[in-house]
Amino acid sequence: METDTFLELNQILAHYDLGQLIDLEKNERGYINTSFAIDTMAAGKRQRYFLRRYKREIREQELVFEHSVIDHLLEKDFNLVARVMKIRDGRSYVRQEDAQGLLFYAIFEYLQGEDKYTWISPVCEQSELKSAAALLAGFHNAVFAWVPRGRRSEPRIIDLLPGLYKTVEGWQTLSKGSVLDAYLLENQSRILGAVERTAGFLNRPENRQVVQLVIHCDYHPGNLKFKDGEAIGVFDFDWSKLDARCFDLGLALFYFFSSWEPRTDGQLRLDELAAFVEAYQGALRGVPGVGSLTPVEQSCLPWMVAAGGLYVLNWTLQDYLHKEVDVKEYLVYLRHCANQVYWLEDAHNREHLVAALRSAN
């Protein structure tokens, strides 16, 4: 097994006291970083870990941020995350340099449980939804009023939306002449209108007073581990940042409840969505800490669901414009995000969403 990858990971493992590398398996689910399940042998015992090679664009302070979030959660007895293993000098990552620049690696405990879903077309069981909502609530409570180390460079959603507007407005300078560009040309004005209206609502002075804390920012069923109908672990904190608590919830609602079926693509499954929010609220009601959603957060939540769709739309566009991607695959993502935003732009649908959220409080 003396492949280039095996030699590379063995070199990283040499910074740890975790034993000898005996096996590895590449994780094919990620879009951003490159990850592996690795097996080591130490003192006759086989142990499995999760090794991540971060994207080249990552900044060191972003790693410090991510790892400090995990360390803090464990200190707060939120034991549903994978511990970051420390190298011999006490740091939580390995810094390497090659001909193309810096590379960062980290090794995590291997979370037990089943990878049942991806972010595409997840339809969870009712018990899984309720426990996933309670898990998100517990995470928010654990990080409330806490200041992390490091810094994530991505702006808050309220500051990211103007950047998305500029990207959609000027995308043709980076056009690849594909079917995705044709879709953008047809939908440009409609997407711009949705961005403008969403940003306009969230920018109202009264709506800028929502709870701010560390958010997961990628909370979907594909980043959860399940067992016996329960969510028992959460991972992939590399998108975590400081932002509005209700944006994290709105983005989760987009991920969990947007239909991917051709005839209903982008529509929200409102009954399941309401049950999720009810479970989230119930997990925080009467518990010291961040508390359940405030009235202002509740009024913002429908717009935060739309902002969630626009956030993923922004990721889709940035990847398409700046990387080599499967155009047909990314057209599916772009259309899905746009369809969800369009569905919410309809006043009748928005009223139904507001009513579903009201029933959950």
List keywords for this structure.
361 residues; alpha+beta; Phosphorylase Kinase, domain 1; Aminoglycoside 3'-phosphotransferase, Chain: A, domain 2; five-stranded antiparallel β-sheet; two-stranded antiparallel sheet
Walk me through the topology.
Layout: H1 4-13, E1 20-27, E2 34-42, E3 45-53, H2 60-75, E4 94-98, E5 101-109, H3 126-143, H4 157-169, H5 179-202, E6 212-215, E7 224-227, E8 230-234, E9 241-244, H6 245-257, H7 270-284, H8 295-322, H9 327-345, H10 347-359
Antiparallel strand pairs: 1-2, 2-3, 3-5, 4-5, 6-9, 7-8
Would you write up a description of this structure?
With 361 residues, this protein is α+β, with helices and mostly antiparallel strands. The protein folds into two domains: 4-109, Phosphorylase Kinase, domain 1; 126-359, Alpha-Beta Complex (Aminoglycoside 3'-phosphotransferase, Chain: A, domain 2), CATH 3.90.1200.10. It has helices at residues 4-13, 60-75, 126-143, 157-169, 179-202, 245-257, 270-284, 295-322, 327-345, 347-359, and strands at 20-27, 34-42, 45-53, 94-98, 101-109, 212-215, 224-227, 230-234, 241-244. It has a five-stranded antiparallel β-sheet with strand order 1-2-3-5-4, with helices on one face. Strands 6-9 form a two-stranded antiparallel ribbon. A two-stranded antiparallel sheet has the order 7-8. Strand 2 and strand 3 form a beta hairpin. Helix 8 (295-322) runs antiparallel to helix 9 (327-345). The N and C termini lie far apart (56 Å).
